[in-house]
Each structure stands twice: as structure tokens, then as C-alpha cells.
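Give me the fold.
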Amino acid sequence: AELEAGIEDALRYDRRVLVEAAVPDAREIELAVLGNDAPRVSVAGEIVPSGEFYDYAAKYLDGKSAAIIPAALANGTAEHLRDLAAKAFRATDCAGLARVDFLVNRQTGDAFINEINTLPGFTSISMYPKLWEASRLPYAALLDEIIRLALERHAEKKALLRSYAPARATGTAARHPAAANGKDARAKTHAAAR
């Protein structure tokens, strides 16, 4: 009854409502992803919140939450989460950087993607740079790599056609010099997503 009432209330504010299943006895495991078409994934880290949830107070105010890097995970679990993080990054066509957060049930080991943060923080408590530091990529080198990836993606997008070119009388489509490169980039992206 509470769920139905909550959905009805939420529908007063929007046309769609997202209902997520609870993950009981969950651990919050975070992984940093870096790359464009061939992303790399950091070691896993775990957030141990000061309260039941990692809410605003637990994250920014009380100073009692802890980050454990690398997270103590059962054999194969860390690699499985790294694989899922890379797949999620590619499936959503992310570029440059993202942090993929999971909720992992302590009893069953079942993992659920909680969020893909496409603009993770770089504060003194932020997990993204800490995860890469633990993965042997220091802060300055991380920034250099993020800039390099941004320039790479910009060049790829700049090479794409921006307007429709109608077919010529010969029956072939007019080609922009960069069209072949754009087609190759899309083919790589589709292959990576598979």
C-alpha cells in the first residue's frame, strides 16, 4: 500500500517513475573507468558509510564514513565487477571518465549497478582519483590522460558529417573526406559494445 501511494505521489511530478528493488545487506563498491573505445578500469574501492545509507550527511558532514581501497572482495568478484563496469561504460557510450558504483549483497554476492557517474568528483574525499592512485596512475598523469582522451574524442566527433549530403546522379552518396573515418569509428564503437 505504501509503494502504491508513493508511486501515485511521484506521478504528480513527472510522467515516469523509477522503482528500484532494495539490495538488502549491501556493500557499496565503486570502480573508476578511464578511456574512450577501449576503457581501463581501476581497482575496486568500498564505501563504508557512517549510517545506514551513504547520504549527504554521511558523505560530507560527519566525517565518519570510510573508504577501503582496494576493497576486500571474494575471489573473482573484483574481476567480475571490473568487467561489468567496462561493459556499462561502453553500453552507455561514455567517453573519457566515469565512476561505476555497485551495490553487492553480502550474503549472495549478487551485484547491481547503482549508478554511472559521468562526472565524478575530484575533491579531497573523491573516490575517482583515489582509485586510480591505488591502480598506480598518479593524479597528474590521470589529468593528462583525461585531457588526451577528450582531445581524441573531439577529433573523432569533428570528423563526422554534420549535414545531409544527397545522393549523386550516379546513385552513390556524396562523400565527405572524413566520412570514412566516422564510419570506421562507429564500427569500432558498435564492435566494442558487443
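The mean pLDDT is 88.
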